[in-house]
Amino acid sequence: MYLTNQFETSQHMHDGAVPPSMNHGGHELFDVHEVLNAAVGALNQSMILRPHVKDPELLDILDRQYRFMLDEYNITVECFRTGKDPSHPTQRYQMKAGSDFVYGMKEKAPSKPIQSTNEISDEIISGFLLGSAKEGATGKTTAALETCNPVVRRVLADSIPNCIEMAYELAIYQNKHHYYQVPQLNSQDMNLLLNSFAPSQGQPGMPKNLQ
């Protein structure tokens, strides 16, 4: 019985060349499907929230990130459907803002759910956008680790740093407006953690000329 099942299973295995459009594993299909669903959700969310933005700086961030995400979505769909290189490579997103964070906490009103769309604020909108960028980075990382098709894997992997850059840009924006506060440890505790590791001097059992 075991030998029969083993033979039947082997007949359904593919170890030769397959067409590029079919060069996808099961996990890959489901995971990339989730990535694309999340991208559609993020793009739709940006369009819904755009009319409520008050700060021109946030509107500029939303528009730049929307255009970039839309292009990434299109080339991901393209390579996912064909299994081949998309019409152009993944571009590199670069934020406009600097990377200076304001550290420390100050008292602010506790957060709570809004009761009306009239309460939608730049803080809420930038929080939604930040959450979408984080979800994109996580989802694409998970999908890339399970992707068989080399083109799709590369497109996903190249997109992850862009999600990180977008999230960082939004985190800096939120931090500047005190929406996203960053506490710090005291200097003594920080130094203890910063110096709690040291470089390795070699590997046990390895000849010195190889260390």
Short characterization:
By secondary structure, the chain is mainly alpha-helical. Helix content is 57%, strand content 0%.
What are its keywords?
single chain, 57% helix, disordered N terminus, Ferritin-like, Spore_coat_CotF-like, sporulation, Spore coat protein
Account of the 3D structure:
Residues 1-11 have low confidence and may be disordered. This protein is mainly α. The protein has a domain at 19-98 and 121-180: Ferritin (Up-down Bundle), CATH 1.20.1260. The protein contains six helices and no strands. The chain has helices spanning 2-11, 26-49, 56-82, 122-145, 150-176, 187-194.
Please indicate the percent range of residues in DSSP E strands (runs of 2 or more).
under 5%
What CATH calls the topology of the domain at 19-98 and 121-180 is: Ferritin
Mean pLDDT: 88
Summed up, the helix count is 6
**What is the rounded Rg?**
23 Å
Largest sheet: none
What's the β-strand tally? 0
What structural class results from the helix and strand content? mainly alpha
Which outline best applies?
A: flat
Helix content: 55-70%
Protein name: Spore coat protein
Family: Belongs to the CotF family.
Pfam families: Coat_F (PF07875)
Subcellular location: Spore coat
Write the layout of secondary structure elements.
Elements: H1 2-11, H2 26-49, H3 56-82, H4 122-145, H5 150-176, H6 187-194
Helix pairs in contact: 2-3, 2-4, 3-5, 4-5
